[in-house]
Amino acid sequence: MYGRDPWGGPLEIHNADSATDDDRSRNLNDFDRAALSRPLDETQQSWLLGPGEQKKKKYVDLGCIIVSRKIFVWTVGLILAAGFIAGFVTLIVKTVPRHHKHPPPPDNYTIALQKALMFFNAQKSGKLPKHNNVSWRGNSCLNDGKADKSGAVLKDLVGGYYDAGDAIKFHFPKAFAMTMLSWSVIEYSAKYEAAGELNHVKDIIKWGTDYFLKTFNSSADTISQIVAQVGKGDTSAGPDDPNDHSCWMRPEDIDYERPVTECSSCSDLAAEMAAALASASIVFKDNKAYSKKLVHGAATLWKFARDQRGSYSAGGADAATFYNSSMYWDEFVWGGTWMYYATGNQSYLYLASHPKLAKHAGAFWGGPDYGVFSWDNKLTGAQVLLTRLRLFLSPGYPYEETLQTFHNQTSIVMCSYLPYFSSFNRTKGGLIQLNHGRPQPLQYVVNAAFLATLFSDYLDAADTPGWYCGPNFYSTDVLRKFAEKQINYILGDNPRKMSYLVGYGTHYPKQVHHRGASIPKNRVKYSCTGGIKWEKSKKANPNTIIGAMVAGPDRHDGFHDVRSNYNYTEPTIAGNAGLVAALVALSGDRTTKKIDKNTIFSAVPPMFPTPPPPPAPWKP
Hints:
Blueprint: E1 2-4, E2 10-12, H1 21-36, H2 42-49, E3 59-61, E4 66-68, H3 69-95, H4 108-122, E5 169-170, H5 171-194, H6 198-212, E6 226-230, E7 260-263, H7 267-283, H8 288-307, H9 329-343, H10 346-352, H11 355-360, H12 379-392, H13 400-417, H14 442-461, E8 466-469, E9 472-475, H15 476-490, H16 515-518, H17 532-536, H18 566-569, H19 573-586
Antiparallel strand pairs: 1-2, 3-4, 5-6, 6-7, 8-9
InterPro entries: 6-hairpin_glycosidase_sf, 6hp_glycosidase-like_sf, Glyco_hydro_9, Glyco_hydro_9_Asp/Glu_AS, Glyco_hydro_9_His_AS
Organism: Lactuca sativa
Protein name: Endoglucanase
């Protein structure tokens, strides 16, 4: 009988085998030792151990690597646990109510800025936009230019801004106001945006520039006349000759004739209007069609200003009583600088920096009003603008000599603002007397505060910690403190604790010299003389003209809140423009919101030829 050896060999069994049991046991043991002397494959192990007795693998084959089973299990477990925890946390984050971090409250300068801009809404003439947000104002003077009997060529003069508490449109101070606003936007657009007022101030500027484009033939290259004024301010006129000063009426109710004043030799006015359009073209540079239109209009006005010399207020003009121009040379420096920045044409820079022009403009005269920046004297503002050019672009020859002089003179003007020097007196309350004690001081103070803050920001941007006044070195912080002290005085930090910005704080002028604000909107049309009772009223104005900066206190810090005294209580758009510029310069975080160094140079070509590219690397 033959059996099969389960280990792979034949096994012969004889039934008649006479071997003893002991012998068979020894033979089997020999077989066991022989079997164990060679390894078993997995199949053989499974036969031997059976299904319930298989060995667990100590390693896991992942194809590219073999890892320990224990490490594999722990790794998979940790991954699954981490995924579970991450999902749980995500679920909690999405379901729990979120608490957004609120931005810090606006500082006092930002609050005042938002109010000061509202004054321009109250001064708008023509058909008002729906979002004007001054409830007591409406459409007014919709026939300006159309009903003129003086023979004026331009018949559509609707729009623009009223100058002050009356309804006259004086173009000379208005153009300065628009230039100031544009300058402040060019330098501090990030601060306007942070205050939520960038679109608002741009709308204000555009309302003014749209109107200026109507005051001359803006599509022509050459013109022979421009409009200087709409309305009449002759205070000697009797009841038979009603005008914007002899009458006390709401602009919406005006029914008398409003004459148009034109001029054919008015270099000061034309150059200032050119500056207004040129600076605005930089503000609206992203609107290429409109910006180009503004640049063309500015070039036309500039050519007119240079070709037909003269002063707009000469010859007994009505404007001479209110906004008399002392010269036009400073407008040539000021306007030429803005024309250069708007176009990049170096012929404008050559003119603006010419030593003879600087001499005519009073750069070397000195005098009590030297360094006082205003709607009449633009020299100091032009010097600051050209100092900017020297600090950041250094154009060199042939401009360096005059630019260095302007830089030095700007430094001297900044020194004169400091209390350590005696160029200007101060009231006991600390208000600098830039107009030497004459009435209506605040319009000059705010311009100086703007220039001081701006110049300090220029130096900071140029990594210059300060400047010299003689042998003494002063840090830029000193200029900023000067500006803050002056603006704080206007906002209420003065002996009377009076805010001279209407609507700011709780104690501010209530009888503002302003026709529209002083007459109630009650569906009653008051005649030229019928409204005088509101001028003489001892009560507060029925309409609060938010954001109006009044003329200001006297040299003794005194103030009379009397409607009939315009030297104390009348606001102007030129004054408010300077206030807006100073407030935005001081507002916000100085460390994060700085001046925009480059936008003003967007049209300026490189000062020096671009160097050629380096040669290609040598190859053997």
